[in-house]
Amino acid sequence: MLTNLLKKNINGVKQLKILKLFIKVYNNLMIRIGVDGNEANVEEKVGVSVYALNILRYFSQVANHETSFIVYLKNSPLLDLPNENEFFKYKVVKGNFLWSQIYLPIELYFHKNIDVYFSPAHYLPLFCPVPQVVTIHDLAYLYFPDDFTKKDLWQLKNWTKFSIKNAAQIIAVSKTTKKDIVKNYGVDERKISITYNGYEKLSQKSKDKSQNLNSKVKNKDPFILFVGTIQPRKNLDVLVEAFNKFIQTNKDFKLIIVGKKGWLYQSIFEKVKSMDLENKVIFTGHVTDEELIWYYKNAFCLTFPSLYEGFGIPVLEAMNYGCPTILSMTSSLPEIGGDASLYFDPKNSDDLLEKLKTLYNNNELRKELISKGKQRIKDFSWEKCGKETLNVIKQGPTLPEGQTLYKIPDDFSPSEYNKFALHPLQTWEWGEARKKTGVEVLRLSDGKSVFTLTLHSLVPSHYSLVPAYKIGYLPRSVFPTKEVFDFLYDYGKKNKIIFFKIESDVLKSSNNGTMKQLNNLLKSKHPLFPTWTQTLDLTKSEDDLLKSFHSKTRYNIRLAEKKSVIVKEMSTEEGFKIFSKLYFDTCKRQKYFGHTPKYHQIVWESMKKNIAHILIAFYNDVPLASYELFYFKNTLYYPYGGTSIEYRNLMASNLLMWEAIKLGKKLGAEKFDMWGSLGPNYDQSNDWAGFTRFKEGYATKFTEFVGSYDLVINPNLYKIYNAVYPLRKIYLKLRG
After folding, report:
1. Which of 462 and 509 is assigned the larger pLDDT?
2. Which of 71, 177, 530, 551 is the right S-S partner for 172, CB 3.0 to 4.6 Å?
3. Domain boundary at 161, 194, 227, which?
4. How far apart are CA 235 and CA 258, in angstroms?
5. Measured between alpha carbons, how far is 477 from 452 in angstroms, rounded to an integer?
6. Is residue 209 part of a domain?
């Protein structure tokens, strides 16, 4: 009996240990995000408050066992905030004066239960034990300091500067805001991600939408609408001046100004009174969603005369309800309005007057703007905004303090990015091509180099019940530093990546030894790139190059020329179609199972402007051979080629390669990389022996790379992957 009891206790201890281990692993898999919810926890929500509320709504919807949220508040949550659930909780931290600088930091330090902290509105706590992310909406206070009270100006200038300096990642709501941050604070633009605000249909409960409207607007008089906080930056003086001129010939119109009083608002009320417009210009104050819908649907137009806007949510709301928009040609407004708005000089009331008259006298234009507005709003949603914001929070601040590795945002300058790229497969264009083929792309920079990675899902996305495991691929970059490997390992664990295949464009002789420091970096059993390639020095003259070729190669070149084979560069759609047919005919003939025609079409479309060139050899207008070549950073590459079985005795391929070499010299290339071959002393019976021998004829040099390595994240699934990999060849044969 004692023995049985002891056995039970021992089993219980074992189970407890297993449970504790499970909890430890479980907690490591979960990312816990702290959020400042105070901007959303106000009665009258406009601008930043609307943004904060919708971000919280999205977070509450996606909160799960992998991503949990604690929302910090000064006061109890209002009824319109999202409900709590198991993974989305509110934490009320009492305190008023300097709440985010005193009371919140104390809470964060004494209750270390988050992994990252997010502020949706400019201000970060003075002290924080975890990485922080902040959203910056605009820098109006720097451009219009006189429009702010001394207290607000001091707070905005100093606290925003502190937040920008100390944030691990910054979210800007527009390109304009991002440019302003870089310009005024000298921040590396790679630290800033652009996430556009969204919009959603306003809530509508009552059937009688006008029941609570101001008595002055219940009649059928047409009206011009403005929506926003009343403050100097909104430039309402110019709007009132233009409106006063407009009603000289359109006496029935009124101007409805919807929005609460902000700061320094007295002057606009005085101006309306001095111009005797009190019965024509109506200030509604804050209105309900139902009332705002009515205003949008019944307005002649929305006019937004702001001198500066970080975004401008009312523009999208108006478009949604069929209200045409007239916007000031400044800051982010053209970025948001696109071609669905009219624009005017915000300092010129006569220009605004002309746009109002144009819209009034051209009903077809009004219909066109309404139609374009309906299309424009499809680019913006709170779900998209929330998803992109969460991605920045989860993936951005994963580096230890002091590291300089950044995730590159999608709006980064392609030309600037390519300055740090080593190879065509690391260029911005290549990443965009892979995106269009449905592959996820991750771009990183350590300040010296860039790393373009592709993430390949093993299971189609519509199989939602199957875990979406992925394989990462980093082709032809510099060899990653340990810092990059550490980032990839952490990223891989959080994003269900089995392993990253690393195939660097680094010679074996120059490897820095990093691979020896990593236990989970294994020599790949299934490389995609050959370890060897052949290269040709293009700094020599054409005569010297030709003399260096194998005698048989020179003979074949002259034979093709004598037989009137002609090589043309045809880097056009027609040229690509010819190349594509020759390429896929060759693949079929040689039983090579590669990418699809659609894939190659996308690659060509993405690379043709700056990188890709097509050469075709003709005989009597019959295409016999074709290459798609890449030229990047003084190097010519030969990734793809195809030939015809017709007129093979004319040696068109030999002449084509010679013309490719001459094209490389013309473009300024100093080296020709043949993309891959067998190594020296190769087996003559190998399937690729003829291809290797053909390249050797041009006096090339054999060059060996460090080879293919796998950074293993999930060892068990990695073993399974390698075990079933041979089935891939069978699948490709069946597909072919």
Report:
1. 509
2. 177
3. 194
4. 14
5. 8
6. no
User: Taking 70 as the threshold, does the pLDDT of residue 514 lie above it?
Assistant: no
Encoded amino acid at 91, one letter? K
Q: Are 240 and 372 in a shared domain? A: yes
Overall number of domains in the chain: 4
Distance, in Å, from the CA atom of 372 to the CA atom of 106, rounded to the nearest integer, reads 50
Tell me if 196 sits within 8 A of 173, measured CB to CB: yes
Rg of the chain taking only CA atoms, in angstroms: 32
290 phi and psi angles, rounded to 5 deg: -60, -45
Q: Please report the pLDDT score of residue 174 as a whole number.
A: 87
Instruction: Output the pLDDT for position 402.
Output: 44
Q: Mean pLDDT score of the chain, rounded to an integer?
A: 86
**What letter would DSSP give residue 261?**
B
Residue-wise pLDDT for 386-422, tens only, equals: 998 998 888 653 333 344 677 888 877 888 889 889 9
Q: 4-13, 43-52, 207-216, 435-444: which has the minimum mean pLDDT?
A: 4-13
Q: How many helices (H) and strands (E) does the chain have?
A: 25, 27
Q: Which residue has the tokens 């819209």?
A: 359
Residues 185, 150, single domain; the answer is yes
101: tokens are 């600088």
Question: What pLDDT does residue 18 have?
Answer: 40
Mean pLDDT of 131-149: 86
Residues 126 and 168 in one domain: yes
The pair of structure tokens assigned to 525 is: 């059993």
Q: Decide the pairing of beta strands 497-503 and 470-475.
A: parallel
Q: What is each CA distance from 104 to 73, 74, 110, 116, 126, in whole angstroms?
A: 9, 9, 10, 14, 9
Q: Does some domain include residue 393?
A: no
Q: How many degrees, rounded to 5, is the angle at CA 237 between CA 201 and CA 310?
A: 45
- pLDDT higher than threshold 90 for residue 151: no
CB 172 within 8 A of CB 194: yes
* Integer Cα distance of 235 and 217 in angstroms: 23
d(C-alpha 718, C-alpha 472), whole Å: 12
Task: For Cα atoms 237, 240, 242, give the angle at the middle one, nearest 5 degrees.
Answer: 110
DSSP β-bridge partners for residue 642: 626
Strand residues in 232-315 grouped as ranges (E): 254-258, 281-285, 301-304
Residue with tokens 């053209």: 334
Residue 607: Cβ within 10 Å count: 21
First to last CA, the chain: 69
Rounded Cα gap, residues 436 and 446, in angstroms? 26
Q: How far apart are CA 336 and CA 557, in angstroms?
A: 58
Looking at residue 567, which CATH number applies to its domain? 3.40.630.30
To which residue do tokens 């060897």 refer?
532
For the residues 588-610, what does the mean pLDDT come to?
91
151 and 32 together in one domain: yes
4 domain residue, yes or no: no
234 and 351 together in one domain:
yes
Interatomic CA distance for residues 478 and 511, integer angstroms:
10
pLDDT tops 60 at residue 359? yes
For residues 453 and 434, the answer to whether their CB atoms sit within 8 Å is: no
Q: How far apart are alpha carbons 681 and 353 in whole angstroms?
A: 81
Residue 190 sits in the same domain as residue 43: yes
Stated as kind and residue range, the H or E segment containing 223 is: strand 223-227
Asked if residue 551 lies in contact with residue 696, where contact means CB atoms within 8 angstroms, the answer is: no
Provide the token pair at 221: 């008089």
Lowest mean pLDDT among 395-404, 490-499, 564-573: 395-404
Within-domain flag for 12: no
User: Residue 305 and residue 314: Cα distance in Å, rounded?
Assistant: 12
Same-domain check for residues 417 and 500: yes
Using 50, 70 and 90 to split pLDDT, how confident is the model at 11? very low
Name the residue type at position 313. I
CA–CA separation, 200 vs 381, rounded Å?
Answer: 7
Q: Note whether 189 and 236 are same-domain residues.
A: no
pLDDT tens for 34-68 read 999 999 988 877 778 889 999 999 999 999 988 99
State the average pLDDT over residues 289-307.
91
